[in-house]
Design a protein that fits this description.
mainly alpha; four-stranded antiparallel sheet; two-stranded parallel ribbon; 21 helices
Length: 579
């Protein structure tokens, strides 16, 4: 190994002996190459922020996902709008209002879908009630016919209070609802109005007090936004449009809560966090590196030269990334911070060796050549081992990490090349003058003597800390939930966590595609037996049962005229069997 390093040392010394003779030419050529690299990267280096692209398409679960999205494309990259209101009626009104607004936004929204809402459920919704619930609803409606008829003919507050008064005095038949909840709700609404609060009375909640699914005040809207994956944040424009509509709707519906979550919003918030973090990390890494260089090198000129070499290497690495990969992803975008942190080490080692040789009164050019000859092989060894570590990422199916390995690994060799060529050329053009101050240590001499004086104590202390660390290592638990990587206080994450609390609204589901009805039903039965599965549904569970019996019941209800308390005729919309 020593012989090999000596060979490389002589090679670097001969190379720099030649290059130092033409420092301006070397720097000019490198600047031209950097200019081409910067131009090439600026016009060709893309940014792929599609999170599905950071994993290999050959993975089985991604192939299954692709087949699923081909069958149900509306579930891909969706924005989930969660609407909460005090009453089911108000929630339905808010959803209808938002759907109308979203459909008018054609540039940022591709499609709008409100589950459980629309003309289909308006006509066929009663078929989805189980037989007992539908029978109870029919009985309540028949009993309520006089009450509904009276309100239909005169729906003023006076008429409503007169009907309640007749029911309380026993002069009329009983109301079709329990009087106590009705009176409590009327009192609540009255108190709210007196306090200038918009509180509404829900007749659905009074008529169907036990049917929670029908009375849900939480509704959903699925939006498919138009995404641009060439942008760092592909959903930025679409979400701006959606949020503008939501804010406008909140002003028009102050009593309704409207929140955004879903895959697109969660990723958008995460990308914004990544963008801010990358900018902050790059800024502070440069500041800290410059500070450390100034403290260690104690030469403004040398710090500027080192920073110039670092910047040139970063530009060349960007060009290499464009040529080798062609784009950056959410993981490989961190290559700049890695390069700054690791690449600066090579220039620091050469600079410090160069300063040391100058303090020995060795001539400028000879000091440069000797520094490169002694340090060049060592930093080459560092570059090779570091690059090998990064290149080990390449075989993984995690494409995002694999691409980072290619870029960062190549960047280490670029850092080596610019360190042994550009740095000596710049130091030849802008030589340093030896200074007595450079011989002074940053810390007192006794600080440097501590490891030698107390070597046994340090060894035992290191062993004790290692054993303690191994003990604590047994308590480490791996968190598989990527949601915990996001800000729990953001609206999208808080809403998502709220939806996870109940099985009816939980977005955490598994999807299995089956080739036939029998296969689907058989898999559902098998899965429902597993203790880890709360429920297993197939598409056939969304076809109402006992449709003929239910239709007869609905048909009988439709014959009654609810606008006339004395009439038994009339017309209701009658659904057809749902297939």
């Amino acid at each position: 190994m020593n012989k090999l390093l000596a060979i490389f040392g002589r090679f670097f010394a001969k190379l720099d002996t030649f290059l130092i003779q033409f420092p301006k030419t070397v720097i000019a050529l490198l600047l031209i190459v950097c200019g081409f690299s910067l131009h090439y990267a600026f016009h060709n280096l893309g940014i792929n922020t599609d999170t599905t692209e950071i994993l290999s398409k050959e993975l089985p679960f991604l192939q299954d996902r692709t087949r699923f999205l081909e069958t149900f494309p509306q579930d891909e990259e969706a924005i989930l709008v969660v609407v909460d209101a005090e009453t089911p009626e108000r929630a339905s009104q808010a959803v209808a209002n938002l759907v109308e607004r979203f459909k008018r936004e054609t540039e940022g929204i591709e499609s709008v879908y409100a589950p459980g809402e629309g003309a289909f459920f308006d006509r066929h919704g009663l078929l989805y009630l189980d037989f007992e619930t539908l029978n109870e609803l029919a009985a309540n409606l028949i009993e309520a016919q006089p009450f509904i008829g009276a309100l239909s003919s005169d729906n003023t507050l006076k008429s409503f209070l007169e009907i309640i008064g007749l029911a309380l005095t026993g002069e009329d038949r009983e109301l079709p609802v329990d009087l106590n909840p009705l009176l409590d709700n009327v009192a609540h609404v009255t108190e709210g109005l007196l306090d200038n609060r918009d509180i509404r009375l829900s007749w659905q909640q009074l008529m169907l007090s036990d049917e929670q699914d029908l009375l849900s005040t939480k509704r959903f809207i699925l939006l498919k936004p138009v995404l641009d994956f060439t942008e760092l944040i592909p959903s930025e424009k679409a979400l701006q449009s959606v949020r503008a509509i939501v804010e406008d709707a909140k002003s028009a519906l102050p009593d309704v809560s409207i929140r955004l979550t879903g895959e697109v919003v969660l990723e958008h918030d995460e990308l914004e966090s990544v963008q801010r973090s990358a900018q902050i990390a790059s800024f502070f890494s440069i500041i800290l590196v410059c500070t450390a260089l100034f403290i260690g090198l104690r030469s403004v000129k040398l710090v500027l030269i080192t920073f110039t070499v670092l910047l040139m290497g970063l530009v060349l690495t960007a060009g290499f990334a464009t040529l080798a990969v062609g784009h950056l992803n959410l993981i490989s975008v961190s290559f700049a911070v890695l390069y700054i942190g690791i690449g600066v080490d090579y220039t620091v080692q050469l600079s410090l060796r160069y300063q040391e040789l100058l303090r020995r009164q060795i001539p400028q050019q000879q000091a440069l050549i000797q520094a490169v000859r002694k340090v060049g092989p060592l930093i080459m060894l560092c570059a090779v081992t570091t690059a090998v570590g990064f290149f080990s990422f390449v075989p993984t199916a995690y494409t995002g990490v694999s691409e980072l390995g290619v870029i960062a690994g190549g960047g280490m060799f670029i850092a080596l090349v610019v360190s042994v060529t550009v740095l000596p050329a710049l130091l030849q053009l802008f030589p340093l003058k030896p200074s007595a101050k450079l011989s002074q240590s940053i810390f007192p001499d006794w600080v440097y003597e501590i490891p030698m004086r107390h070597h046994m104590r340090i060894k035992w202390m290191a062993l004790a800390l290692t054993l303690a660390g191994l003990g604590l290592l047994t308590q480490v638990r791996f968190d598989f939930n990527p949601l915990n990587l996001r800000d729990p206080k953001s609206e999208s994450v808080a809403t998502f966590l709220e939806l996870l609390e109940t099985k009816q609204t939980s977005p955490m589901t598994l999807t299995i595609l089956a080739s036939s009805e029998s296969e689907a039903l058989d898999k559902a039965r098998q899965l429902s037996r597993l203790p880890s599965v709360e429920s297993a549904l197939t598409i056939f569970d969304f076809v109402p049962e006992d449709q003929e019996i239910k239709l007869d019941m609905i048909h009988e209800l439709a014959l009654r005229n609810y606008s006339d308390p004395q009439s038994t005729g009339g017309n209701f919309g009658i659904g057809r069997p749902v297939r």
